[in-house]
Amino acid sequence: MDLNKIDISNFLPHRPPFLLLDKILILTDEEVSASFKIEEDNLFVENNYFNEMGLVENAAQTCSSIVGKSYFDDDDTEGKGAKLIGFISAIKKITAFSCPKVGSTIISNAKLTSRFDTESYSVCSLECHIFESTNLLLSCELNLVIKDLK
Questions:
Q1: Number of folded domains in the chain?
Q2: pTM for the complete prediction?
Q3: What's the domain range around 135?
Q4: Count of CB atoms within 10 A of residue 85's CB?
Q5: Residue (of 22, 24, 87, 97) closest to 55 by Cα position
Q6: pLDDT of the chain along its 150 residues, tens only?
Q7: CA–centroid distance for 114 within its chain
Q8: Most buried of 31, 64, 70, 84, CB within 10 angstroms?
Q9: Which of 47, 13, 44, 71 has the alpha carbon at shortest distance from 130?
Q10: What's 23's domain CATH number?
């Protein structure tokens, strides 16, 4: 799959102002890396900084890309192969170190640590680390539930 051809909004149900990923940089069955530029009008910006809740939601959207990928064919660059819904079922651990300023681009790196699939949904555990350049902003472990609505 050519990641440059992917419009992430075709694969996530989120829409601006709640879509917190711009580009998928790496996407495999077990890891993902994504970028997001923080704009001044973002709903998670407070006093010129992207807040902790925005970082957590960015992590969740990044993590859901790993599991969501398995519901689509590799050549489906328009996201027509599935209609998914997902949610955070648990936050096991979270450490926020710093919040990035408006205008910054953050990079989110997530790794799948476990996954359980049924006929109608997937439950997974993931780790995510969010960086601004080499500065670690947030580290978390969370569980997601992903369900195909088709």
A1: 1
A2: 0.88
A3: 3-148
A4: 12
A5: 97
A6: 555 556 666 666 666 778 899 998 988 889 999 999 999 999 999 999 999 999 999 999 999 887 776 666 666 555 566 677 778 899 999 999 999 999 999 999 999 999 999 988 889 999 999 999 999 999 999 999 988 777
A7: 17
A8: 64
A9: 44
A10: 3.10.129.10
